[in-house]
Amino acid sequence: MITLLLDSSSHHLSVALAKGDKVLSFVEEKAFQTQSEIMTQRINELLIKENISPNDIKRIVVASGPGSFTGVRIAVTIAKVWAYAKEVPLYAVSSLSVYRHETKPTICVLDARRERSFAGVYAQNNAILPDKIMQNSEILALAEKEGYLISGETKHLGIEPAKFNRFENMLKSISEENRVKDIAAFKPLYLKG
Question: pTM of the prediction?
């Protein structure tokens, strides 16, 4: 089964094709404020590279927020239109959960500006602390107190991110719980605070 994986919730554009639970090809590039211009182009390039027809895609996984307001909407809109038009299942995953470490509890973060981050704590597929907005100082203190790794886009925290595999994490998140039941009504997750 061919799966299309999409994430534009941060400063990066991430697109992949997978067969079963194996990633065939992917693109990850800095594309802040240009995701809308290049995401469909990158999808097309991967399809050509792997000699896969758009009709061969049988499911879609999208990082649905939180994150960049415009960025999240781009991947979600492409995923919704494709899933609806091709009548394939759509799975929505937290855009923070894709940063989790394979085996260790991880505070997954994206910059929310003004000394704050979008943050969630994940251990494998389980959310220990649901996605919310936290002060950067709170995140660093929590990591130190609990011994959590910190991963994601961490430059604003002044640290290197822990190791993660975005696309493997997205594939591992495919479940009935994450399946979008009503594609037309599906909306990204936005956090304000």
Answer: 0.95
